[in-house]
């Protein structure tokens, strides 16, 4: 069924068309390729009722995804909660905040399960015997887990200094995990060379046009969960910039196929200050994204110094009327704590970046306080729990005595209440 909707690949620069193969750059101008669809056919075929009748997974939007048949990997991925966060809204000083909570995505607790479900399903359609990736952590976990679920052999290449929890989160699935000395960009460069020599499906290299499309499902879900309306503002963390561009693409596709009413929507990008090539270029009013050779941030999942989609992310932000911000390490930790304390959602460092940057965008007036806002939280805090070491209070220890417990509770009651974060 997918064959009639997913038509071909197209260069994002010159528009040349390519067959649906394992290629990712244009042979004429080296522009990146992306999947395109027959939107008129989708519009005639799809409806809100048809989507709502399907199982609650990302595949309820399968007409917008680049497969030729039914998905064979990650069939339970997606449709994570969109949480109305009134206490967080109060702390941020805005009317309405929603949190798109991919910390509970299946199976590896990050949005990467979306892109991997698409790319590995496509890899199986194309007959690849081995799947692989370059990763800052979450993608490695997802490739390892989803490959294991269907018996695919996998290799994941990561920076050697990655968080221990993310390394273990790949090793446990039996994947061949290879640490590379140096930053992510050197890992990615090596993977491009390997992909050129071995007949392997590198999800974010030769299968990138398929892989990237999986990110759109986060946007589709946001719109449906808001009652089939576009949010006025969406704040999205940026590493390569791909997630941001694809969520914007999902909004446009829903407009083009008449699933939602056309209305303005602003897309905002969030980066860590220690690796902020996209926000730096945006701030300087240029589309020239200067690489960061040595990222210095606790948000390692966002530490891509040469973002593949940086140029397109800047274009997307500007065209939508959005803005870009970045956050320091202390601000990232504060963002993690604020989200947890007001919503009960424990996010990894990328989520702290999103919350911290949203606060800055609100305080600067770039996000009006009387408009709706969605925060995209992309991974679970247990993946980067070490950044909170020494930050949180230690448990209070008492003997197994009711008298001691009474004394402790009495001191809590008599202690003056601490100011909330919104009060300073």
TrEMBL record:
<protein>
    <recommendedName>
        <fullName>Threonine synthase</fullName>
        <ecNumber>4.2.3.1</ecNumber>
    </recommendedName>
</protein>
<dbReference type="InterPro" id="IPR001926">
    <property type="entry name" value="TrpB-like_PALP"/>
</dbReference>
<keyword id="KW-0456">Lyase</keyword>
<dbReference type="InterPro" id="IPR004450">
    <property type="entry name" value="Thr_synthase-like"/>
</dbReference>
<dbReference type="GO" id="GO:0009088">
    <property type="term" value="P:threonine biosynthetic process"/>
</dbReference>
<dbReference type="Pfam" id="PF00291">
    <property type="entry name" value="PALP"/>
</dbReference>
<dbReference type="GO" id="GO:0006567">
    <property type="term" value="P:L-threonine catabolic process"/>
</dbReference>
<comment type="similarity">
    <text>Belongs to the threonine synthase family.</text>
</comment>
<dbReference type="GO" id="GO:0006565">
    <property type="term" value="P:L-serine catabolic process"/>
</dbReference>
<dbReference type="GO" id="GO:0009097">
    <property type="term" value="P:isoleucine biosynthetic process"/>
</dbReference>
<dbReference type="InterPro" id="IPR036052">
    <property type="entry name" value="TrpB-like_PALP_sf"/>
</dbReference>
<keyword id="KW-0663">Pyridoxal phosphate</keyword>
<feature type="domain" description="Tryptophan synthase beta chain-like PALP">
    <location>
        <begin position="76"/>
        <end position="379"/>
    </location>
</feature>
<feature type="modified residue" description="N6-(pyridoxal phosphate)lysine">
    <location>
        <position position="112"/>
    </location>
</feature>
<dbReference type="GO" id="GO:0004795">
    <property type="term" value="F:threonine synthase activity"/>
</dbReference>
<dbReference type="InterPro" id="IPR050147">
    <property type="entry name" value="Ser/Thr_Dehydratase"/>
</dbReference>
<dbReference type="GO" id="GO:0003941">
    <property type="term" value="F:L-serine ammonia-lyase activity"/>
</dbReference>
<dbReference type="GO" id="GO:0004794">
    <property type="term" value="F:threonine deaminase activity"/>
</dbReference>
């Amino acid at each position: 069924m997918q064959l009639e909707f997913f038509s071909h690949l197209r260069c994002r620069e010159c528009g040349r068309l390519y067959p649906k193969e394992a290629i990712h750059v244009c042979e004429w101008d080296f522009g990146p390729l992306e999947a395109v669809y027959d939107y008129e056919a989708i519009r005639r075929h799809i409806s809100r009722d048809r989507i709502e009748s399907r199982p609650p997974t990302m595949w309820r939007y399968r007409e917008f995804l680049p497969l030729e048949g039914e998905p064979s990997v990650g069939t339970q991925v997606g449709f994570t909660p969109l949480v109305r966060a009134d206490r967080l809204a109060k702390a941020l000083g805005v009317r309405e905040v929603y949190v798109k909570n991919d910390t509970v995505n299946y199976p590896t607790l990050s949005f990467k399960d979306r892109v991997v479900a698409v790319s590995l399903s496509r890899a199986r359609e194309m007959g690849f015997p081995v799947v692989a990736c370059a990763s800052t952590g979450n993608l490695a976990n997802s490739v390892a887990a989803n490959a294991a679920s269907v018996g695919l052999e996998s290799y994941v290449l990561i920076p050697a200094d990655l968080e221990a929890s993310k390394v273990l989160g790949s090793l446990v699935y039996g994947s061949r995990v290879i640490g590379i000395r140096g930053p992510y960009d050197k890992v990615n460069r090596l993977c491009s060379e390997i992909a050129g020599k071995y007949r392997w499906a590198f999800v974010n290299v030769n299968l990138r046009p398929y892989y990237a499309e999986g990110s759109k499902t986060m946007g589709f879900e946001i719109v449906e969960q808001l009652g089939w309306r576009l949010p006025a503002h969406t704040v999205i963390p940026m590493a390569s910039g791909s997630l941001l561009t694809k969520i914007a693409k999902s909004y446009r596709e829903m407009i083009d196929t008449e699933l939602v009413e056309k209305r303005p929507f602003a897309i905002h990008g969030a980066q860590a200050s220690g690796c902020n090539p996209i926000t730096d270029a945006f701030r300087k009013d240029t589309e020239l994204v200067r690489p960061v050779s040595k990222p210095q941030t606790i948000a390692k999942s966002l530490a891509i110094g040469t973002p593949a989609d940086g140029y397109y992310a800047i274009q997307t932000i500007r065209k939508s009327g959005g803005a870009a911000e970045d956050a320091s390490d202390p601000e990232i930790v504060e963002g993690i704590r604020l989200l947890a304390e007001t919503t009960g959602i424990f996010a990894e460092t990328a989520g702290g970046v999103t919350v911290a940057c949203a606060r800055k965008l609100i305080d600067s007036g770039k996000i009006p306080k009387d408009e709706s806002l969605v925060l995209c939280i992309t991974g679970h805090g247990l993946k980067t729990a070490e950044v909170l070491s020494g930050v949180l209070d230690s448990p209070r220890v008492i003997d197994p005595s009711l008298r001691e417990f009474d004394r402790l509770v009495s001191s809590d009651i008599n202690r003056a209440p601490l100011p909330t974060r919104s009060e300073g």
